[in-house]
Write the structure tokens for this entry.
Amino acid sequence: MTTQDTRRGFIKSTATGTGAALAIPYFGWNQAAFANQEKNDRPSIGCIGVGSMGSGDARGHARFGDVVAVCDVDERHALRAKNDKNIGKGKADNYSDYRKVLDRKDIDVVSIVTPDHWHIKIAVEALEAGKHVFCQKPLTLTLEENQLIRRACEKHRDQVFLVGTQQRSDRNKFMRAVNMVQKGVLGKIKHVTVGINGSPTGGPFPVAEAPKELNWDMWQGQAAARDYRQRRCHYEFRWWYEYSGGKFTDWGAHHVDIAMWALDKNGAKQGPVEIDGTNCEHPVEYKDGYATVDDCYNTSHKFSVMHKFSDGITMDVTSHGDNGITFEGSKGRIFVNRGKIAGKPIEENWDKDQYTDDAVKNLYKGKPHEGHKNNFYRCIREGGLTVSDPFSHIQAMAACHLSSIAARLGRKIVWNPLTEKIMGDDQAAAFQARQRREGFDILKV
């Protein structure tokens, strides 16, 4: 038996569905527990996208397995990760084409930390290649992509998929808030304010020559080809609708996700029914939902998008006020962000008998609470859905994408969560998908 067969057999022997977890006793697992396994039993990992965030994630993955391949369309990133003592250790192979990573039969896990517009194409192909997948948020670029990745994950349910929304693993703040709302401690929820700040403004930015180490054409992927401008590329891509959704998908992927988790509205066929984008501004002039210039940041910098749900709850996704989430119920209100959880119900410990270890385990889908990536690798060994699974995440992403569509058009739109279609507005409905550049289509499964 080869080393590859030994490792892959051991990893996959327990990852054959949710029932596998029942046969395996839980133990006090930490990052070292997986890292100290025999080499033949440790997963081999390929990291696709190793810029600043990608390198940070790669170091996290390397605690659980061996990073044997790194890939980036910017050779500087790939070589840096290859030689990082906590990632490739000078031994990992480096590539510029992600397909070479997916072609390798010895790789068990892929980490996808590319710009947003590349996420789903690589993720679907990774699942088809038999890999377990970690993908950074936001998972999707459009409403259509929500459906594409759902179908791929349904087809490959025995492969583990974790989205990088790490707030779902914050026991002391976000998980406590979710439990408090779900247990009715705040009474009937009437309104939620999701503060995500506004996108930065900037430009016009000059055309420049792309760095020789960067494959600019490949970087652009499915997006229409444009001249290279430094501020269109690494990290700054977030503030261009061509590649991302601005703060709607950047912070929205975190805070809208928590809000809808708490409200128990992140299941199939759930979501808002009306989205009001009339109170939104963009830093450049817009016509028919598109920026009229291509040399400035174009995502919304001032907005208050009101979502209405069929049960009467409203959710304001806004750039105004503090970054964080406010839940307002008939009995009380709380505010939570990465720095604190506050409000009278917290000060008076209203949930002292409600926030138990069992409650935490329930939020963690039956797994013991631990770090975000710990949960990913536990699910690879034991089976089951991760705490941040793709199915619930795309429900939050639907609200995020609907926010940006309503903001770009500056009007109310009606959404049918049962059919997943924008109703009565052909122009708005056209934004559910986008035309992709030839050669960069997403595999349909």
